[in-house]
């Protein structure tokens, strides 16, 4: 991913426009998603329909050629030559029209996928973090990746396949009706019989397709969980149990798929037999022989039915695969719509600009993840510019949740959070992210170049600014020894330790240059040798900013201007290190325990 690509995901394109208005009484469908490319798809279908007609004309021309040469009054030479040249012209026209239709759908599909992926990426960026905790990575991957891939075949191929499968037999049918309508009705018998069995095979298709996608989603989720947790799984010798979860999901899918196939085998086999070319040819020749011997038709009129009879049924077999593709596409469209319908954090209709001083005020703040249990309650806190405020407390006390309310990863369920005197809910998200930088406890680096990782917050930053940020974060020297320096790709030829990754994320925050900075235990993944470098980088980052620090080790924040002790989602104590020790309360006990542990 280049810096330009990163910028594109922020700025958006016309393809990322909101979905068109929907009929309240009608569930969202594939047509809504295809609206931006509908014109090209219609043009492609028209071209494919014309190509399908042209594909039948050579067979019709051969039949007419035979009828012209075998006419009872003698060969009709002019009619024969007209039929031959018509066949040649139709073949050329079919080639041009078929290529045109394919180019149109593939270009439409490329734009459709790009626009939809950008729309999903933008929507995911606006969702609260709580949504991601309720939906597994496998489900997100399926909705944002696999479902779009499923729609590829539907957009680029299925529409054309269905058009050809319908128009070609209709063309043949119209011609055969002009030859002998009675034989035509007989020739339709295999088609009607095959349609009956095909309908049986496809019965309950929507429900089965939904179950199929659900079973595949279970397998995806199990795979992602296995891969993400493989380190812990191996460390605790739980490999067999982890594999069992994947095996159970795979077995469940296998049982469902086997039962589905077995339940449709008889009907699908009967449909295939009835719609096969030999069956259609047998019916045409048998009925034709009867008609000729009874004097109901001329022998030469059998030629069109022998040539075109199989065309009435042959292309219909392709509708079976197309039918599954359509059902899969509709199911994918529903899941994509469900993802896009997930409520994003609301944006103010008239955004307000925050003040420039970087003051953060939390007034009466409360928060609940599920709407029933309060994680935070009655938080009143002011973070002054140029000061360091530390959040400490036991695990589960609400430290990380409180810190994440400042950059509005979630909205408060009570009270307000203000930056520069403005409620964060009234600030435009882009402006808010220029006001607040967040250095996570676990470094989050993208699989792109070191250069682009650092300038993620400022995609247009030049190389000089990137290097200055890296130097301030004490990571420049490490970058210069990478195989390609700043052009090395994280995870490929840039293999960084936890402390180095953390310093890279600090360089990113330095370059963003936001007046408010939130640090979530930023040295927790640093090894002892690099912790000092990380601390120096953080000191450079904190200068002149409003700093909120989440700390587990109290020694790292003893010099903070203000220390807030959280307990059960409430502020239990607050003050300086010396003031809190003098209170001889929770903080003093935590300090004594940690000092005792450090002395051992």
TrEMBL record:
Positions of the ABC transmembrane type-1 domain: 42-328
Transmembrane segments: 41-62, 82-104, 154-175, 181-198, 271-296
Domain of life: Bacteria
GO molecular-function terms, A-Z: ABC-type transporter activity; ATP binding; ATP hydrolysis activity; ATPase-coupled lipid transmembrane transporter activity
Assigned GO CC terms: plasma membrane
Coiled-coil residue spans: none
InterPro entries tied to this protein: AAA+_ATPase (IPR003593), ABC1_TM_dom (IPR011527), ABC1_TM_sf (IPR036640), ABC_transporter-like_ATP-bd (IPR003439), ABC_transporter-like_CS (IPR017871), P-loop_NTPase (IPR027417), Type_1_exporter (IPR039421)
Pfam families according to UniProt: ABC_membrane, ABC_tran
Intracellular or extracellular location(s): Cell inner membrane
Family classification: Belongs to the ABC transporter superfamily. Siderophore-Fe(3+) uptake transporter (SIUT) (TC 3.A.1.21) family.
PANTHER family: ATP-BINDING CASSETTE SUB-FAMILY B, ATP-BINDING CASSETTE SUB-FAMILY B MEMBER 6
Protein name: ABC transporter
């Amino acid at each position: 991913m280049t810096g330009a690509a990163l910028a594109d995901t922020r700025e958006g394109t016309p393809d990322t426009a909101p979905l068109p208005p929907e009929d309240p009484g009608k569930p969202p469908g594939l047509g809504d998603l295809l609206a931006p490319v509908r014109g090209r798809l219609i043009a492609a279908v028209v071209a494919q329909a014309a190509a399908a007609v042209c594909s039948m004309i050579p067979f019709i021309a051969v039949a007419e050629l035979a009828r012209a040469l075998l006419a009872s009054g003698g060969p009709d030479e002019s009619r024969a030559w007209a039929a031959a040249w018509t066949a040649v012209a139709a073949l050329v026209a079919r080639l041009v029209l078929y290529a045109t239709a394919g180019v149109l759908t593939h270009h439409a599909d490329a734009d459709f996928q790009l626009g939809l992926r950008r729309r999903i990426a933008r929507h995911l960026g606006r969702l609260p973090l709580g949504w991601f905790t309720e939906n597994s990575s496998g489900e997100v991957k399926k909705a944002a990746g696999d479902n779009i891939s499923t729609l590829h075949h539907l957009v680029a191929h299925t529409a054309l396949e269905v058009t050809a499968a319908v128009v070609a037999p209709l063309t043949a049918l119209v011609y055969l009706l002009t030859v002998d309508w009675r034989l035509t009705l007989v020739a339709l018998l295999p088609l009607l019989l095959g349609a009956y069995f095909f309908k049986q095979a496809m019965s309950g298709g929507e429900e089965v397709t939904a179950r199929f996608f659900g079973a595949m989603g279970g397998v995806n989720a199990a795979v992602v969980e296995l891969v993400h947790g493989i380190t812990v799984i191996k460390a605790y010798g739980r490999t067999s149990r982890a594999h069992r979860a994947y095996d159970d999901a795979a077995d469940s899918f296998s049982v469902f798929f086997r039962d589905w196939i077995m339940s449709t085998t008889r009907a699908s086999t009967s449909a295939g037999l009835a719609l096969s070319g030999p069956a259609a040819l047998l019916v045409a020749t048998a009925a034709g022989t009867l008609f000729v011997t009874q004097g109901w038709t001329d022998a030469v009129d059998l030629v069109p039915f022998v040539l075109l009879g199989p065309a009435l049924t042959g292309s219909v077999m392709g509708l079976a695969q197309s039918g599954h593709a359509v059902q899969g596409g509709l199911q994918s469209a529903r899941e994509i719509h469900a993802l896009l319908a997930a409520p994003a954090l609301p944006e103010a209709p008239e955004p307000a600009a925050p003040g420039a001083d970087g003051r953060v005020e939390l007034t009466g703040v409360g928060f609940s993840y599920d709407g029933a249990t309060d994680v935070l309650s009655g938080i009143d806190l002011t973070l002054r510019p140029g000061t360091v405020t530390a959040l400490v407390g036991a695990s589960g006390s609400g430290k990380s949740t409180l810190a994440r309310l400042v950059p509005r990863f979630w909205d408060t369920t009570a009270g307000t959070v203000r930056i520069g005197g403005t409620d964060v809910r009234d600030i435009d998200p882009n402006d808010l992210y220029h006001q607040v930088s967040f250095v996570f406890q676990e470094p989050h680096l993208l699989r792109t170049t070191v250069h682009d990782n650092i300038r993620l917050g400022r995609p247009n930053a030049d190389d000089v600014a990137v290097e200055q940020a890296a130097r301030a974060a004490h990571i420049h020297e490490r970058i210069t020894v990478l195989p390609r320096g700043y052009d090395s790709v994280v995870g490929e030829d840039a293999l960084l330790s936890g402390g180095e990754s953390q310093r890279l994320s600090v360089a990113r925050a330095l370059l963003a240059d936001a007046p408010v900075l939130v640090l979530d235990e930023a040295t927790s993944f640093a090894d002892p040798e690099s912790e000092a470098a990380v601390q120096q980088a953080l000191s450079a980052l904190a200068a002149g900013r409003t700093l909120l620090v989440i700390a587990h080790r109290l020694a790292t924040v003893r010099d903070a201007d203000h220390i807030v002790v959280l307990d059960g989602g409430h502020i239990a104590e607050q003050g300086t290190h010396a003031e809190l020790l003098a209170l001889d309360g929770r903080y003093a006990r935590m300090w004594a325990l940690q000092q005792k542990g450090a002395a051992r």
